[in-house]
Amino acid sequence: MSHVSTPQRSDDSDAPSPSRRRGGRGRKREKAGGRRIGRKILIGLGVVVVAAAGTGYWLYSDLNNNIKGVDIDKAIGDDRPEKLPTSGQNILILGSDSRAGANGDLDKADVSGARSDTALVVHVPEGRKKAVAVSIPRDTLVTRPECTKSDGDKVPSAKRVMFNSVYSLAGPACTVKTVEQMSGVRMDHYVEIDFAGFKGLVDAIGGVPVTLDKPIKGSKTGLSLDAGTHTLDGTDALKFVRTRYGYGDGSDLGRIGLQQKFMIALLAEIKKQDLLGSPTKAYKIADSLTEALTTDSDLASLTKLTEFGRSLNGIDPANMETIMLPVAYDKVDPNRVVAAEPQASTLWKAIRTDADIPESAKKSPATGGAS
């Protein structure tokens, strides 16, 4: 990671980044699938509300206490962009591979620390009628601002560090601060989902069916699947979303494709299950999901999550999309990427001003070989 040392990883993420070589073959992103993912992410934020609907009040406290909160405002202080002058909302969503607690058993406890494997900035403009989710590639070189960790220790600013190292070194508040300073966009909320909760959620709903158009063979995670449809339990689902080698060209773009495929399948499965007709299943799913969540302190309760979910009810799925932050291959280390200009600045400005994002700002020079 450039000038910052990072923990060793035992999973497929040790492999070079999606931009590990110029001209490497990558996965062609599907625009239609991207729009569905944006919709599913927002639906997912409301799953807690649906799942808890059939339970009694005596269960509310149990579920409520599962949710972990981080006081982002206190941790960052005043060194932040101004809030939008509109009622638009920006949410940073992270998928964390923390090895804390039950997560340690998922990797045979041979990897320490935690990383942000997935990062999405979800922008909901004023009026709540549409949304866009911007994915930040984990291998993007960024400037990490000076931060204060949860234990009070200071972390100095550093240039050219890999984006996913920020969470590992300094925690969620510093990740929020980094995103805010690279984008100029203030994050209104923070949502993090960890490995153990992800596994528990998949098991709670009885597995998730996914369909592969090509096989997964020789993955470092130990997962081997033929092309076709498979119902994955929590353990195999975790391997599935972490697979890099053994699928496609072996790049991180391939893994992102698998993660998107599984996200759609998971949330579709939750949505189709009769949660209101089965309070027991509703509680089991809500328990697993809330145990997986860490949010900013303003969302760290079922009541607050419910209110936030209701505020998104008017969003038209036809007006949602996901895009990748435009990046270019780094000139010093082609295994890493940097924000591509002027595309990245144009993208963030559109989000800051609640404007439509120009098509030119959605095009990324670094594609891993995808056209």
Structure, described:
Helix content is 35%, strand content 19%. It has twelve helices and 15 strands. The strands form five sheets. The protein has a seven-stranded mixed sheet with strand order 1-12-9-2-3-4-13. Residues 1-39, 46-55 and 99-113 have low confidence and may be disordered.
Could you say which structural class the secondary elements and strand pairing correspond to? alpha+beta
Helix content: 25-40%
Rounded radius of gyration (Å)? 19 Å
Major beta-sheet overview:
7 strands, mixed
Q: Beta-strand level of the residues, as a percent range?
A: 15-25%
Overall mean pLDDT score?
76
Number of strands: 15
Question: Which strand order do you get reading across the main beta sheet?
Answer: 1-12-9-2-3-4-13
Order of helices and strands: HHHEHEEEEEEEHHEHEEHHHEHEEEH
Tally the helices: 12
Shape: globular
List the helices and strands and how they pair.
Layout: H1 31-45, H2 47-52, H3 57-66, E1 68-70, H4 72-76, E2 89-96, E3 116-124, E4 131-135, E5 141-144, E6 147-148, E7 154-155, E8 158-162, H5 163-170, H6 172-183, E9 189-194, H7 195-204, E10 208-212, E11 228-232, H8 234-242, H9 252-272, H10 279-292, E12 293-296, H11 302-311, E13 320-324, E14 327-329, E15 337-339, H12 343-352
Parallel strand pairs: 1-12, 2-9, 4-13
Antiparallel strand pairs: 2-3, 3-4, 5-8, 6-7, 9-12, 10-11, 14-15
